[in-house]
Every structure is written in structure tokens, then in C-alpha cells.
TrEMBL record:
Gene3D superfamilies: 2,3-Dihydroxybiphenyl 1,2-Dioxygenase, domain 1. This is Lactoylglutathione lyase. InterPro entries: ArsI/CadI-like (IPR049789), Cadmium-induced_rsp (IPR052393), Glyas_Bleomycin-R_OHBP_Dase (IPR029068), Glyas_Fos-R_dOase_dom (IPR004360), VOC_core (IPR037523). GO terms for molecular function: lyase activity. It comes from the Bacteria. Coiled coil: none annotated. Keywords: Lyase. Residues 2-116 form the VOC domain.
Amino acid sequence: MHRMHLHVTVPDLGASIVFYETLFGAAPAVVKDDYAKWMLDDPRVNFAISQRHGNLGVDHIGIQTDTSEELQALASRLKAAGAQTFDQEATTCCYARSDKSWVTDPAGVRWETFHTFGEATTYGEDPSVLPEAANPVVACCGSASAPEPAAACC
């Protein structure tokens, strides 16, 4: 089964946690000094916020899979459609260990498909970028407008 993922960069983590707790009627499943995440079932979404980047608003959209096989199927569909993906294996991102496949859609929106298989004690540092042809952006939740790769994760 898949779960929609949204990652939003916020200016004030504390105020944003209060707002989203009220909106969702639930406390976050994960809270760190620079990050919070809700794993909601109604709607089925992995909603994350962080205070790690300068550009406020939606950082990227994604689809979280329950298995590595589901992730491979999604990435294969994107590649079969001619999309250039940026694949990451066993990366640390957003206090989690995940395999990922990134792609930029025709409108320039960054999409992350991923399977999380463990927790991590750090947010993660990942200076990798998507290939030039895929509209260069920083992988793992970095700012799309950054002139150089930045250390960041979702």
C-alpha cells in the first residue's frame, strides 16, 4: 500500500507543530529540534515539516511504499515513461534509513518515491543532486533554488 508524502519548510517549527496538531487532531509521531512528522491514516499521508531550508512552503511531494518491491515498481514505471530518476540506496534522511528514487515532473515539482526500513539518530546529510537533465535540485529535501548542493534531508 502507498502513502502520500508532503514535506513543508516552515519558519517557526513550534508554531507550526501547534497548527498542524490542531488541523490533524493528532500529535506528531516524530519530533526533533528541526523536524516533525505525522503518519496519518485519514487521510493516509506522511506529512513532515522542517526548519532546515530558506525557501518556505512545499519542498517536495512523494509516495511512500511499504516494501522495496513497491518502490522498484514505481521507479520502473517512471523510467519506462522516459523520466530520468536519481536513485539512492540505504540513505539517511529525516531521521530514517530509506531507499529512494527522485524525479522532477514536467512542471519542475520534485517527487520522491521511497521505502523506509529503519530509524536514524541524525537528520542526515546528502549533497547529491539529480542529473542535469532532470532539472538539477538537491536531493533529500534540499532547496530547489540552491545554487549548489546543500546538506539536507526529508
